[in-house]
TrEMBL record:
Belongs to the class-I pyridoxal-phosphate-dependent aminotransferase family. The keyword Signal does not apply. Signal peptide: none annotated. This is Aminotransferase. Residues 32-387 form the Aminotransferase class I/classII large domain. It holds the Pfam family Aminotran_1_2. The keyword Magnesium does not apply. InterPro entries: Aminotransferase_I/II_large, AspAT/PAT-like, NHTrfase_class1_PyrdxlP-BS, PyrdxlP-dep_Trfase, PyrdxlP-dep_Trfase_major, PyrdxlP-dep_Trfase_small. Its EC number is 2.6.1.-.
Length: 395
């Protein structure tokens, strides 16, 4: 028999991808399925970005590039971080990767030793705990509740820190909840972190531009500048510029960490796609109005879907501040229908409503469903109508 590594044995395949595949299977069989399980904008990549990619091909930008990215893109990233986040970086502090996902993977590979702990607030993006395990680290999951808008408290953070803690993962606005820390809350978490200089902070800001809170978006180092020396900002063009397939993300952080991350990438994938890099320059350095336009559409959908979900029997859902997800507590509905859990509910809705969602268990928060609103309002309205019918125990 073939021997497989212990490392892969403890890792699960991505649950969000599994649900999308199940929905696609039913659709292929001719079922009318509305998918609210997607993790990408429904918009096409803006025209000026596509044009830049075509120009790059025609100009012959089709060869290997520097592992950490072409100088023009690194400069566009430096300018973006200064413009949007008030954070100053040099080229040696930037690494361009195949999506934000690879940037996070590189970071964990470069900084985590066996047994090191990484604090992961739940609900979490599905990949964090498994990426920590792939680095032989130990995810330490911090549970949150709807009462705190699924955000961790400074006390909770302080209590979870041990001698083995190496990193805190922050993702605000969050996938799956759409919730975000206020400036005050970031300051309070920062105070705890200031007492523990050996803890790195990974700030996954990938949903930065899909944002409608009253306060402006802020990365934690903007609020607590003393943390910048041990902060790694993760961001990319996937969500904000509707560029998921292009696979461009980046990390900005201490040069010593970035150098080791670059080494990991150099021995695994080398540079991200040269053509996509040229497109990302156009995205980050070009006209930003496309970002604002998409955000307006996401907000309109959020503002319709949130009260509609909250009004469903046995469901409670509070407004989010950004991203394109709502995370609703369906525990009442699960009980009324006599189902076991959120996994059972997601299957029930797929079967009886033809609506695909992602069960909260995948994000470390049972009893919930994540519903994505990266689709038109009409689709959302049809989906909610169908969910309402399928939640009726008499039906
Ligand atoms: N971080 C979070 C929180 C995400 O939701 C995602 C995508 O789903 C990523 C990172 C990865 O983004 P990318 O497509 O740039 O790899």
């Amino acid at each position: 028999t073939i021997q497989l590594s212990k490392r892969v044995a403890q890792v699960k395949p991505s649950a969000t991808i599994a649900m999308s595949m199940k929905a696609a299977e039913l659709r292929a069989k001719g079922r009318d399925i509305i998918s609210l399980s997607m993790g990408e904008p429904d918009f096409d990549t803006p025209e000026h970005i596509r044009a830049a990619a075509i120009e790059a091909i025609n100009e012959g930008q089709t060869r290997y590039t520097a592992v950490d990215g072409i100088p023009a893109l690194k400069q566009a990233i430096i300018d973006k971080l200064a413009r949007d986040n008030n954070l100053a970086y040099e080229a040696s502090q930037i690494l361009v990767s195949n999506g934000a996902k690879q940037a996070i993977y590189n970071l964990l590979q470069a900084t985590i030793d066996p047994g090191n702990e990484v604090i992961v607030p739940a609900p979490y993006w599905v990949s964090y705990p498994d990426m920590v395990r792939l680095a032989d680290g130990q995810p330490v999951i911090l549970k949150t509740t709807p009462d705190s808008n699924y955000l961790i408290s400074p006390t909770q953070l302080a209590a979870s820190i041990t001698d083995q803690t190496r990193m805190l993962m922050l993702n605000s606005p969050s996938n799956p909840t759409g919730q975000a820390y206020s400036l005050q809350q970031l300051a309070e978490l920062g105070e705890v972190l200031l007492e523990h200089p050996r803890i790195l902070i990974c700030s996954d800001d990938i949903y930065e531009h899909i944002w409608w809170a009253d306060e402006p978006f802020a990365s934690i180092a903007e609020v607590v500048p003393a943390l910048k020396d041990r902060l790694v900002v993760i961001n990319g063009v996937s969500k904000g510029y509707a560029m998921t397939g292009w696979r461009i993300g980046y990390a900005a952080g201490p040069a010593a960490v970035i150098k080791e991350m670059r080494k990991v990438q150099g021995q695994s994938t080398s540079n991200p796609c040269s053509i996509s890099q040229a497109a990302a320059v156009a995205a980050l350095a070009g006209d930003q109005s496309c970002v604002a336009e998409m955000c307006v559409a996401f907000r309109e959908r959020h503002d319709w879907l949130q009260p509609a979900l909250d009004a469903l029997p046995g469901v409670s859902c509070s407004p989010g501040k950004g991203a394109f997800y709502l995370f609703a507590d369906f525990s009442g509905a699960i009980r009324t229908l006599g189902l076991d859990d959120d996994l059972g509910l997601a299957e029930h809705l797929l079967e009886h409503a033809g609506v695909a969602s992602v069960p909260g268990t995948a994000f470390g928060a049972p009893g919930h469903l994540r519903l994505s609103f990266a689709c038109g309002l009409d689709t959302l309205k049809a989906a909610v109508e169908r969910i309402e019918k399928a939640l009726d125990p008499q039906a």
